[in-house]
Amino acid sequence: MANVLVWASGLAGMFLATWWAWRWRRLPVVTERPAPSSRGQAALEGLRTVALSLWAGLAAGLLVPGLGGRLLMRITAATSPPEAQGRLTDAQERVGEITLEGTIEFLVFVGLFGGVLYGLAHPFVRALLPRRAGPAGVVVAMVLLGTVGVSDPMSPDNSDFALLTPVWLAVALIILVTAVFGVAYIGLAARLEQAVPRLSRRPSTWLAHLPLAPAFVPPITAVAVVVAAGRALLHGRPSPWAWPRLQLAATTLVAAAVAVATVRSLLAAGEILGG
Questions:
Q1: pLDDT > 80? residue 82
Q2: Can you tell me the distance from the alpha carbon of 235 to that of 40, in angstroms, rounded to the nearest whole number?
Q3: Distance in angstroms (rounded) separating the CA atoms of residues 27 and 10
Q4: Entry pTM
Q5: What are phi and psi of 72, to 5 degrees?
Q6: N or C: which end of the chain has fewer CB within 10 A?
Q7: pLDDT tens sequence across 184-217
Q8: Residue 107 to residue 96: CA distance in whole angstroms
Q9: Neighbouring C-beta atoms of residue 163, cutoff 10 Å
Q10: Contact yes or no for 247/241 (Cβ under 8 A)
Q11: Residues 6 or more apart from 248 whose CB is under 8 A from it?
Q12: How would you class 256 by CB atoms within 10 Å of its CB: exposed for 0-12, middle for 13-18, buried for 19 or more?
């Protein structure tokens, strides 16, 4: 029964994330809106951005690295030889065994926690990304694979690659899960940006914005305060990224990050497959 649930939930999560990534791939990463009417309104916009980024991270993180990552583990265990079954992986999990405790820990610490971490970073980097959700998601996925990916799941030092076979399938699944997370997260964040109306300082409107509450939960509050303060300080001034020289610098920085991440990913994959 546990095996069926892992397969069903993992496939459903990956399908849903892929569907919304494709459906919302053309949405703008940053929706054009009239300038806030005051510094207070600008600060509220910052809180809104942080909260929506977190919800996108929670949803995409649960579905893709969470449920999808658990499915990845199930597939690689099923394709591995009998002598690998029951042996401990690098994460101290036994190959082929499915436990409720292990699944919950994986969903929380890999899925939800990983999604929240990127959600906290997104408000600071979204202006640097390509304008449309599809290309922006690809950029995010490539950078994540070349940083977080090669430092843990796709690290050449990961002992799991000595247990699981075929190795090429494990590498391909890691790349797939990372890619789907990147495009799904950006697509969902862009859709929420369009769907959720602006905050207002009028108390009568706050009940409709209860989903934004994560922005006020410590230690997330610290990030929310920084973003809100930055929006308030920029009120009435053009965004720094609107300046041509900074636009060129930002584009160059993103291109360099993608190039470095791609090289690191290729080197890691080559070392794993060659070993």
A1: no
A2: 9
A3: 26
A4: 0.91
A5: -55, -45
A6: N
A7: 999 999 999 988 877 766 666 666 677 777 767 7
A8: 17
A9: 21
A10: yes
A11: none
A12: exposed
Question: 88 in helix, strand or coil?
Answer: strand
Q: How far apart are CA 106 and CA 9, in angstroms?
A: 14
Extract the tokens encoding 179.
């890619």
Residue in the structure block whose two tokens are 């796709």: 154
Task: Read off the DSSP letter of residue 178.
Answer: H
Per the structure, the complete domain to which residue 214 belongs is given by 2-274
What is the rounded distance in angstroms from the CA atom of residue 43 to the CA atom of residue 36? 9
Spatial distance between the Cα atoms of 193 and 39, rounded to a whole number of angstroms: 20
Q: In whole angstroms, what separates CA 24 from the centre of its chain?
A: 16
**Per residue in 160-182, pLDDT tens?**
787 778 999 999 999 999 999 99
| Number of domains comprising the chain | 1
Backbone angles phi, psi at 132, to 5 degrees: -100, 150
